[in-house]
Structures are given as structure tokens and as C-alpha cells.
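Q: Integrase catalytic domain-containing protein, please. Structure only.
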Amino acid sequence: MMQELFKQIGVTHIYSIPYHPQTNGQIERFNSTMDAKIATLCNDSKTDWDDQLPVVIFSYNTSIHAITKQVPFEMMFGRSPVLPFDHQDPNVVLSQDPEYLSKLNLFLSSSTAQARQNIIKNQQQYKKRYDINRSNPKYAINDLVLVKTLNPRHKFDIRYEGPFRIIQQLASKTFIVEHVKKLPLRRQVTVDVLIPLFERRN
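A: Structure for Integrase catalytic domain-containing protein:
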């Protein structure tokens, strides 16, 4: 059912994985924006956050998006939103345009195409900035590593555990590691949670 819906609207469903929010970056960024706006409007005890949701969502949808350079409301409805401070004539005249549907489709397709171009441009710029300071560690079979602790409960909990030994490479940045002392313990990990270890030889 959902796959058919995705197909009809041209959406590619990409799954995210736990403890790796980077795979769902757009949602994480949206949540960060919402948190900041809600925190600003809430009372001191933060108990009325749910009352602020309609205002915050309307504000977000009627503002120019930093990435797409488009107003979400206009991309959804094909017209500019009516804001509380906009002047409104008491006499409303509804005209019938026989070409309204074609004009609406043209506007929506144009704004969507422009938003897509802006997103791609922004992604390329972000990748370029990220790659400048990004390390590119190389690992091989039998290398010793520490693995980042996924869910530390306290500030002073250990950040990495191990040692683990790489026993299999599944992809360019995905490995199977096995604990050196607890031999049945194996994990599938990516390079971003690994720290290399070096054996001291006398």
C-alpha cells in the first residue's frame, strides 16, 4: 500500500538507522528549528509547548525556506498565504478563470523544479565544505579498533569499548568486528564509530 503511494507521487523511501541521525538529516534539521521556535514562545515552565504548535507550524510554512528558497505554503497551495497583518478588502470577489488548473500546475511544477535545483546546489556546497575537514580512515581485516558506545547513560560513561578486531568487510565503509576477549560478541559497524588501535611491539 505505502509502496504504491510512494510510486504514484514519485517519492523514494530511504530508511534511517538508529543512532545515526545523519541518514535523516532533513527531519533532524526541521526538528531543531521547531525546538528553537517552540522554546522561544513557551512559558517559563515549558508546559504549554503544545499550544504553540499551530503558530510555529504556520510561521514555518509561510517563511522562505533557507535551502529551497521557496515558501512551503506556496509550493503546497499554489498561492501566497493570507497573513494576519495583510490588508483584506471587506468585499471579496471570486473570479472564475477557465485556465486556472493549467496555470496552477505550471506554477507548482516551476516552483518544485526551482526548489530541487536549490537543494542540489546546497547539497553540493555542503559536501564540499564537509570533505575539506573530513578524515578518510582506511581499515583492513585483522585491524584492532575501538567501537563508539551507542547509548551512554551518564556523562562519565566510557565513550568507546573494545578492543574489537575487524573480521569481515561488507562495503567500503562497513565492517563486521569481533570482540577480542568476548569472542561470541560481533557487531556490524561503519567507520564513523571506529577508532584505530595499534599493538605495541617490543
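A: Brief note, in case it's useful. The chain has two domains: 2-83+100-132, 144-197.
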